[in-house]
Amino acid sequence: MRALILAFLLPLCSIGRAQLNNWDPSWYTTDSALIFHDDLDYYLNAYSQTEIKAMRRQVNIWRMNFDKLMLQTIRDIRAYSEGHGMVPRTHDFTLPTAKEAGSYSLRANEGKIRAFMFGSISNPPARVQIERWSRLAKKYAAEDVQLFVIYGRELHPGDHKAFKLYPQPKSEYEKAAYAKEFAQLGSIPVLIDGLDDAAFTAYGKAPNGAYLIDKDGNLVFRSTWADDRKMEHMIDTLLKWYKAGKPKVFEAK
Fold first, then answer.
1. CA 146 to CA 37: how far, in whole Å?
2. Which residue has the higher pLDDT, 67 or 221?
3. Deepest of 131, 155, 183, 195, by most Cβ within 10 A of its Cβ?
C-alpha cells in the first residue's frame, strides 16, 4: 500500500519544529466524556526539517513517475485520511504482544486511559514516534495510562536500502518477527495485528494513525498521523479532568 506517500507529504511540512497551530487543542464535554477535536489532516508536520530529510533518505518512492505518484497519492488520501473508512467509535481487539508471550485486550483494560498508534518497521514516522512515546510512558508510569503500538501494514515494504529486507509479510510468523524487531526501537508494548489487518481496517487504515480511549471506553481523539506532543497535551488534560471529578464545565489550570 502506498498510502499517504512521504514523497508528496514531506515537502509540504513547515521548516523547523512544527507547531500545534494546525490543530485545535481545545475540548468539549458531553454527559460522559471529555472529547478532543480530531486531527485528520493528511499533512505530516510533526517534524523538523532535519528529521524530514532523514526520513526521506529511508525511502525510494520519489523515483516513481510523478503523474502516477500524484494520482496514487490522491486516491490514498481519499481512502485513508480525513476519517474515511472508519466508524468513529472504540473498536475492541485482543492481539498478541511482540516482546513476550501473551496478549492484550482493549476492553479488559477499561479504567485506564489508553493511547495507541499504528506502525511498522518500514514506516519512518512510526519509527520516530515509538521512541517519543516511550518517553511519555515513563512520564505516566505512576498514572492509569497505557501507551502502545499496534503493528499494522508496512508503509514502504521492500523499499530502498533501509527496508529491502522487509517485504509485505506473507505469514503470521514473519509479521511477528518484524514486530519484535520494531519493538526494540522503544520501550512501550507492541501488539501484532493479524494478516487480515482487522484492527488496522477497523481504525481507518492510516499507517501511523493515533487514537485516544478514555477510562470509560470512549474514543475521544483520532489522528491520521501520531504526534507525541498532541497526545501528551490530551493525556495531561484528561488526567486533570478525572482528578477534578469529571465536571461538565472544565478549564484546565
1. 21
2. 221
3. 155
Q: How far apart are CA 173 and CA 127, in angstroms?
A: 21
- The model's pTM: 0.87
- Structural domain boundaries of the chain? 6-243
186/176 Cα distance (integer angstroms) = 16
Residues 6+ positions from 238 with CB-CB distance below 8 Å:
34, 113, 212, 214, 220
Q: What is the pLDDT of residues 186-218, one digit of tens each?
A: 999 999 999 999 999 999 988 899 999 999 999
Phi, psi dihedral angles at 108 (to 5 degrees)? -70, -10
Exposure string for 46-56, b = 16+ CB within 10 A, e = fewer: bbeeebbeebb
Does residue 18 register a pLDDT over 50?
A: no
- Cα torsion 150, 154, 155, 156: sign: positive
Task: Please tell me the predicted confidence (pLDDT) of residue 53.
Answer: 81
The architecture that CATH gives domain 6-243 is 3-Layer(aba) Sandwich (3.40)
